[in-house]
Amino acid sequence: MAVAGGGDEEKISLWDERGRVMRYKHFEDLPVWRKAIDLAFRVHALGVSGELRAYGGLRDQIERAALSVSNNIAEGFERGTRDELISFLYIARGSAGEVRSMIHLGQRLLKEEPAVSELREIHEVVLDISRQLGGWIESLKNTETADPRDRNDAARQSASEARRRSAFVQQLQRIAKGELDSYTEENAQ
Fold this sequence. Notes:
Elements: E1 12-15, E2 21-24, H1 31-48, H2 56-79, H3 82-110, H4 115-141, H5 153-176
Antiparallel strand pairs: 1-2
Helix pairs in contact: 1-2, 1-4, 2-3, 3-4
């Protein structure tokens, strides 16, 4: 997973477990955000089911922390720089840790099914979210390419010119091999 981009359109690229590039233009498309919003829904549903009613402080705090995970993923995605994205992903991961900690307390307090089973399932979901966020953070930290959202107009223009030069050279190579008769801008694309 890493930040990458192309052209003037701002996107974030992530690599999946098979090494395929997946590009996201909106945070709502991110699998980790979708999982995080499902987490917030499940935690809220547990709170309104009555199981946590006697523990109002715990219920309120776990709901806020669960919602914080998806909100910080979204805010980091929308902020505009790789460094800010990393910062907000760390905050989201911290909130996920907070949810896990409160789940352990909830399991000790409740001790009755089906609430304990639901807490175990939620724990697995939030653990997976933490792993995904950790992997994304590490890949962002190890990315040497500049975040396209950090580029100014001059840098975007320079990148565009570099792509045109590269296409021109590739087309010249094809002409030299006899694959094309002559250079045209249309053939370069």
